[in-house]
Structure formats: C-alpha cells, structure tokens
C-alpha cells in the first residue's frame, strides 16, 4: 500500500466511524472486570518473582542444613572405656623409664598395640580387639608420653571406637554393631567426645582415624604459591593495561586473552598444568608447587579484572596533581595510584583466592588425589587439598566417611565465608567515594 | 644446596646489592652538597634498585633455565657411563629404571626394586651434585658480575631513575604478556596432544562416532570406541538443557523481583544470599547432588513408574548445576535490565500499563540481547563444570533423552581418562586432551559471542 492510499484509508475510516462522545466508563462492570484481571496478572507475576527468590534461598538453606546435620557428628567420636592394669601389662615399667630422652625408645619397645589388644580382650572377650579404631594404640602411646604417671597404676582410658560402632552409636548402623553398642551401653562403657584427631590428623583407611590437617596444610601451601605468583603478576598487568598500555593490536590481544582466561573452564587449566608443568618441565607430581602454579594461572585474570576496576576508580586529578609537581609516570602510579587502589585490588584478590581454595578439578588433573597419610613437609612433597580430600572421601563406600565428608565441607565453607566476610569488610572499611 | 635455599641466598645478596648501591649514591650526595657540580641526578634508593636488579635478575633467570636444562644433562652423563651400557633398549623399562635410580639418588626412595637402578643410583648422585654445583656457581658468578657491572656505572650524573623505570615498565609489560602466553600455552598443548591422538584415532570416528568405550590399545582404521557424540550429547543435555531449564526462569525472575519489586532492605539482604550460591565450591554441590538429590529423584522416578531410573541420573546433576548458575543468570539479567533507559519504562507506566506489563512488554524485549548474552555465558560455564557431574552423573556413555537415566559428559570423561595409571603417551591420556580441545573451543566461542552481544547491546543504549 502506498503512502497515499494509506492516508486515504485513514480518512475514509474516520469518516465512517461514529465517534462516541461519552468518555470511557471506568466504573462500569466490563472495565472493572478488565482492571481486576490486569491486577490479578500483576499479583501473579510478582508472586512468581518472590517464588523464584524464595526457592533459591530455600535450596541454599537446605544444602547448608544437610551439611550441618551430617557434619556436626563428624566432629564427635565414640569412645569406649578400657581398663588398663599397666603394672601387670607392661611388666613393671616405671614413670621414670618413659620420661626423659629415652622415652621414645622405651615406648617403642613396649609393644603398645599388643598391650591394648590384651587389655581389651581381657575386658570384652576375644572379639574385643575389633571394638577399637586402628589408631587406638597410637592414642594410648600419646597418653603415656604426655603423662608418664599413668603407667604406675590401674587406669581407665577412654579410647576411640571402631567406625562401625561409631556409626551405630550415633545413628542406625549394622545390626551386629547395634547389638555390641547396646551391650556396651549397659556397662556404661560408651561416651561421646570431641574428635581432636579430625582436626589434627591426616587421611587414613579407617574413617574413625581420619583427619583434615594434612589436606588443609596442602591447601594452605598451594594457596601460598598461588598468592605469591598471581597477586604481583595480576596487579602489574592491571597497572600496565590501565595506566600505560598504548592502544594497539598487542593491547587488544592481551585484553581478549584475559577476558577469555577468566571464563575458561577450570579443568582446562588442569590439562595445561599436566602437559606443561608435569610433562614438559618434569616438576614433581601431585605437589603443592604445581597445584599452586596451576591455580595461579587461573586466579590471575580474576585479579587483573578486579585490579583494573580499582585502578580505574582512582580519579584523574590525583595523577594530574602528582605529574604537576614533577613525579615521573612510574612514580605517579607506584606512589599515588596504587596505594589508593589497593583496597579494591585486595578485595578482588581475596575473592579470587576463595574461588581457588574451593577449586577441585584442576588439582585432580595434576594428580593431587593421592592417598596422603601425613602432612606434606615441603612444597615439592606429594600433597592433597581440602576440596580434593572431600571428593576422595565422598567416593568411599564405608558409611563412616559420610559424616567426615560433611564435616570437612563445614570446615571448607567456614573458611570461604571468612574470606568473603574479610573482603566485604575491607571494601566497606577502605572504600573511598571520590 | 636446594633450589629454595639458593633462591633465598640470591635474594639476600640482592638486598646487600641494594644497600651497597644506595650507600655509594649517598656519598655522591654528600660530596655534591656545597660542591660545584650541582645535584645528583637520581635519589640514592634508585641507585640501590639499579644495582640490585642488575645483580638478581640475570642470576634468577639463569637459575630457572638451569633448573629445566640440567635434568637432561644429568641423564646424558649417567647414560654415557660404562655401567649404563647394559640397560635395556626398550624405552619404557629404561625410563622406569632411570627414574627409580633418580628417586634413590635424591633420597625420595630407600630401596630399589630393580637391580640396575641400584647400580645407577651412585652415578646419578654424582651427576646431580656435579650439575647442581655448576648451576650454583654459575648463578653466583652472574650475580656478582651483574652487581659489579652496575656498581661501576654509578656516577653522580648517572640516570639511575630512568634506567630503573624502564626496567619496571618492562616488568609490567611482561606481566601483561603472561595472559597471552597462558592462552597460547593452553592452545598449543591441547593442539599438540590432540594431534598425536588424531594420528592414532581418526578425527571422523571421534567427532561422529556414537560408540564411546575407549580401548587402551588402538588399531588404525578399526572402530576403537572413541566416538564422542554420546559425550557431546550428555554435556548439552545436562549443561545446556536441564541446568538452563532451572537457571533461566529462576535467575531471570529473581533478578526481576529484586530490581523491580523488592524494597531496598529486602534487596540488600537477598542479593548477597544469592551470591553465596555462586561461592559454594562445586565439590560441595557435587556431594549434595550425589548424596541427597539423586536418591530422592530416583525414588520419585520409581514412584512415577520409570523402571530403569539410575541413582546417578542426569536430572540430579542438571538441577544442582542449574542452581549453581542462578546467580550468574540473575546478575547478568540485572545488569541488562538496569541498562534499559528509564524513559522507556516511565513512558510505558505513564500510558497506564501495570508494572508486570511494563516488564514483560517493554523492559524484557529491550533487555533481551543482554539476557541472551548472559545465558550464553551461563551455558559455557555449565558445560565446563566438572565436579558436580563427576560426582553426581554417571560414567557410562549413553545416547538417551531420558533424564532419569545415567549420562556422562565431556568433563567426566576427561577426569576418568586421566585418573587411571596411564603413562602420558597412551591413547587414553591423549583422548582427554582431544576432549579438552573440543571443550576449550566451544567455551571460547560461546564466551566470545556472549561478550560481543553484551557489548553491542550496551553501546546501543549509550
């Protein structure tokens, strides 16, 4: 239809239409119904939005409560009272013989596992040895070393129970274990205690003897390497891109690379670490060093992006004033811009580090999934990290590991929450509005 | 001496160099006071930095180069010894003996499992200490030479500040270039390993085959069970379909509610709570999905009468992944809705439209490109997600659209292929890199398109 025909049609239409001179009757039944319908739609839409937020929050609450409900039990352990007639069992060891410089050798020669087994079977029958966890002997040894006076008399020691009993005492376990628990409870020989081993120990095959310290230390060492590399490099790159970079192809390429790296799946960084650090450079497998390097590559773009925003928010007047009184461009940035941008950079860094702390997949790729029975001593020792330890325990068939996994998750979440809270505090405390 | 100790020694000597350089410049300053020659060009600390940098940087560079070169030199020296001549010719067992001998020599291992490695161990020990001494001596010589060279150049009119600042700029540039180097490193390593993989298994089988059952010994030309279509489908089904069915409605509606309806107080509290969802580590989500969600869904499916419901079903992994993505979709939608000019919203409201009509008919259509960009980013995040699917989805490749069945994804298979005890050149390991390349290219493409769309959209309203 041409423009002319179109306007003709309008004119024709206007001529034909009978214009109703009365205004719309908003109070009429039809109009009121229509408005009510529209308002109902409005309420429905608002309710849908509320529902979406509520559902997300509920999911988070459900997740946290599930973890708390299971995990708090992981910090407890079941202990069994075992009576030790030390003078008879140790054939007359004295307090003096297990103190001083020779204490270790004397304790080693005492065959403590045998003593424990003997004491338990005297008290609870032939099957008694299966009541206690495999770490019970080490526990007794530690108690003797701490307090040599124990050895001179009859003592009742509370020792950690085997994981089957532990599970049965806390909730429903295997029928056989439930029966044992019932008999022990009649004798008043069971109690719950705080599981210090869980905070100080390392991985073990027996869930009642596991601890997270080794994994946690591995995480700390990995994070130390990550921070040491990613922070300076990230800050330098942010300063260069914001303050000095000329507008050219190279700068564009750097920007594209950084934006892309920030969105690359973390598992790809694991593949890079495997191919480059392990295979090409021959660095030690499953070490905190390689883990830290890999996570540093992953964290660096996050710090660069946060750093650029922080540097950008420093007003140009600061730079101009510094230049005006004769500072060189490098002095302007390092003496004036960087200190002002530092709180923002630190906030971004902490958030990036929190992400790295929870990261699992790249560490699996570089072999940090080994069984680590003792805490790593150096950066090149085989180590594991807290999230990887959670993954490994979640794979275990033994029921006792369920609560340990959740307990480890609680520890990890507490640290992440702490880091995020620190970031928020820093932002609120030091953020300057220009 | 270990590498760490040497590094600390070098840094300590660097500090000494800084002090010496600074002290030297301080004498210039004293001499210049009241003298005829005027002022010293740079502050004393710049002289100190100049000497320290000239001493430390070449030494540290040499240290790292030596660290990567010396293992090969050590192995050569051991192999050239007469004892090494009766080593097996077969490359694999030879490498095993050598690595064991090396472990014994370094004190990592105490007993030898192979007789020959015990004989080689002392040789290794000698070679290791010989080359580590050379490395140490080289490092220290470079350090002192660099420091001495810099020290002789110090003069009252020496432009130490300009030199140091040029070095600082070089350092900054290098830090920025690391991003490019990392990207290229990822690309090169993936391409290189994938090339080796495709020389064993045909790319045609990999890209279009429907049978995923990787064999550890491959025969060229035959079907080796490396058909990745079931994995691609599983990744798309879990990450781009199920997860998005959860994340898009919930994320978008949360964003709308929080920006358009909620009071300031509610928004102040609810936004951080939603952000927590993004901060929970994926291993926690995975554990939750495997332990709580998946059994519940299986029971539900059995109740519905689905007979073959698996305990590692696709639905559990997808739903939990969707929840993880909610904050990402929500914040991207939030940004793009906020970018719509207020005049458009006010105009619609002034015409008598209700809030929901304004949102549905004005704000959302205007914000659509931004929302779509956010969804693309979310998809790229979901298909690269590893731990949730590793723990909650299955390991069996399955070409099915039944959400209650077990389905595997690309990332699950990468983990599965690499966590066995394979040596690096095996087709299993290389296949993981080929899958990684596919994943990298896909996410790169999605991110690129998403960022372009979002940027275009922002510019349209500025």
TrEMBL record, chain B:
It is a multi-pass membrane protein. Its main location: membrane. The chain crosses the membrane at residues 6-25, 46-66, 130-151, 172-192, 231-252, 273-294, 314-341, 362-383, 430-451. Keywords: Cell inner membrane, Cell membrane, Membrane, Phosphate transport, Transmembrane, Transmembrane helix, Transport. The keyword Cell inner membrane applies. InterPro entries: MetI-like, MetI-like_sf, Phosphate_PstC, PstC_N. GO terms for molecular function: phosphate transmembrane transporter activity. It is found in: Cell inner membrane; Cell membrane. Residues 233-450 form the ABC transmembrane type-1 domain. GO terms for biological process: phosphate ion transport. PROSITE patterns: ABC_TM1 (PS50928). Gene3D superfamilies: MetI-like (1.10.3720.10). GO terms for cellular component: plasma membrane. PANTHER family: PHOSPHATE TRANSPORT SYSTEM PERMEASE, PHOSPHATE TRANSPORT SYSTEM PERMEASE PROTEIN. Part of the binding-protein-dependent transport system for phosphate; probably responsible for the translocation of the substrate across the membrane. Belongs to the binding-protein-dependent transport system permease family. CysTW subfamily. This is Phosphate transport system permease protein. It comes from Sphingorhabdus lacus. The lineage of its organism: Bacteria, Pseudomonadati, Pseudomonadota, Alphaproteobacteria, Sphingomonadales.
